[in-house]
Structure formats: C-alpha cells, structure tokens
Amino acid sequence: MLKCPYCYEVLSERVTKCSHCSQFIIDNLIEVDFISMDKKKCVFCGEKILVEAKICRYCHKWLDELDRTVNDLDDL
Ligand SMILES: [Zn+2]
Ligand SMILES: [Zn+2]
Q1: For residue 13, how many C-alpha atoms fall within 13 Å in the half-sphere facing its CB?
Q2: Are β-strands 2-3 and 39-41 bridged in parallel, bridged antiparallel, or unpaired?
C-alpha cells in the first residue's frame, strides 16, 4: 500500500503529484502494510485529516510548521 508522504492519504499508484493534497511528491512514497484511519482535526480549517498528516489536504497548510517552531525554541 502506498501513501503520500505529506497528507498520508492512500495512493493507488506511484504518482508525481498527490491527487489529495495537490503536492508534487519529491520524497519517497510511504509503503505500509495496513492503513491507519485515525483522524484529527486540522488546526487551521477544522476538517478531519489523518493523524499522521503533515499537510492538510483541504486547506493545504503545513501542520508541522507549528512543531518546527516549538522545536526551534527548545534548541536555544
Ligand atoms: Zn498527499
Ligand atoms: Zn486544513
């Protein structure tokens, strides 16, 4: 099973652009044996997205930017 490395939605084949989050896929696709369907709410638009998602497939905002900011502060 192939998943988009950004929105973690399932892809039916190796594509260069994700049909879910519209990102060009420059990283390796994620290969998984089973699909986690756990969802969380996007902090920006409130739509339900996969818990692992790094980008919201609805508003296309990067969710890990929040984490990155926190991590940067921890390093100081
Ligand atoms: Zn995607
Ligand atoms: Zn969103």
Answers
A1: 2
A2: unpaired
| Ligand lying nearest the CA atom of residue 58 | 2
What spacing in Å lies between the alpha carbon of 11 and ligand 2's midpoint? Answer: 20
| Distance of alpha carbon 70 from alpha carbon 47, whole angstroms | 23
Reference 45, options 55, 56, 37; nearest CA is: 56
Is residue 3 a contact partner of residue 15, using CB atoms and an 8 Å limit? Answer: no
Q: How far apart are CA 35 and CA 24, in angstroms?
A: 22
Q: What is the pTM of this model?
A: 0.80
CA of 55 to the centre of ligand 2 (A): 8
Q: What is the pLDDT of residues 36-45, one digit of tens each?
A: 889 999 999 9
Q: What span, in angstroms and rounded, lies between the C-alpha atoms of 41 and 57?
A: 11
CB 63 within 8 A of CB 53: yes
